[in-house]
Amino acid sequence: MRSWILGILSTAALVLSGCFASPGMVLNESSNEDGSIDTLADFQGAKVHLQSISPLTLSKLSGVSSDSATPATFAALPEELLTYTPEAYKLGPFDIVQVVIWEHPELTSPLGSYRSDNATGQLVSESGVMFYPYVGEINVVGKTIAELRAEIVSNLSKVLNNPQIDVRLLQSQRHKVYVQGSIKNPGVVTLNDVPVTFLEAINRCGGATADADLSTVEFTRDGKTYVLNMLAPYAAGKGPSDVVLKDNDVIRVPDSEESKVYMMGEVRNQQALSFKNGKLSLAQALAEAGGLRLESAKAENIYVFRASAADAIDVYHLNARNPMALVFGDQFALKPGDIVYVDATNLSRWNRVVQLVYPTAQLIYYGSQTVNTTHNAYKAIQNW
């Protein structure tokens, strides 16, 4: 029986080609390739670019010169975000304005001084009209604070001698910014005559949560969405904290769970990994997945698949047969959506074929034995 089954397994071995190599890593192993693989291919209509993870590739991806540790470039914000300057605030319906007239508290707080700031202000009606003593109704829609002050001074000068007046916007109801996502207190931030920056709006909502991914913050303005990295260094120090907000801007801070890297193939734990502060290297990802399966992983065939466009795939290859190559892996920064795949050795593939074929061979053998036994018994009965 044993020799018969081995014969079947030997036949299955003819399907496999190539030499068997022991799995795992070897410190003194020399690579049979010089780290300069750079080829193009097609896969189902997509352009595939295969290249080695080498010092040259790392310098191209990171923007750091291969002979220098100084960043060659900084992150840069779109010019239109940095050049925006808000116009002077124009009043509208439901705004609350406070008018202070020095030496005339009866006009500043005609209903008493023990009230909140909002209560001491004048509400602009839905029709855009505000009432003030000795002035009457004032149409304030579209006026700036300076223009409203000038109009009140002009009217009060008829009843007061050289009135000293200060006008303040206490509360705005018209201009709003929306802060969403992994924020401690997501909600609405109102804009007034004092400019509010990107960072200030987030801080007013309590700041980001511990699980927030600050490297891919989405900022939507006028129907266009920008992705801002709040952790990156910016040229001339001009970063997201310098972006002044305007009406209807939307800030969304994603959760780190939204950005994943997928570990597949011959790793201990096939799983999806999250980024930490927007960072995750290839070596870190392999370690978090439990490392390679030393009994089956082909360390010289570690791949990172990255969709660079709808019809283009970048494939990065790391030959880690010598574990020193993992230094390159630690410098290779993964991106959300990357797929890390560790290939299997020919020997492990053979073992899997054996595991699949052996039960079938046993079934065939015992089936043939049963047929032979039945046939012999039938002949014995006939002879008897």
Automatic annotation (TrEMBL):
Q: Where in the cell is it found?
A: Cell outer membrane
**GO aspect biological process, one term:** monoatomic ion transport
Domain Polysaccharide export protein N-terminal, which positions? 85-169
Statement: the UniProt record of this protein carries the keyword Disulfide bond: no
Q: Which residues form the SLBB domain?
A: 176-253, 260-342
Domain (Outer-membrane lipoprotein Wza C-terminal) ranges: 347-372
* Lipoprotein as UniProt keyword: yes
For this chain, the family text in UniProt reads: Belongs to the BexD/CtrA/VexA family.
Q: What is this protein called?
A: Polysaccharide export outer membrane protein
Task: Specify the species.
Answer: Hallerella succinigenes
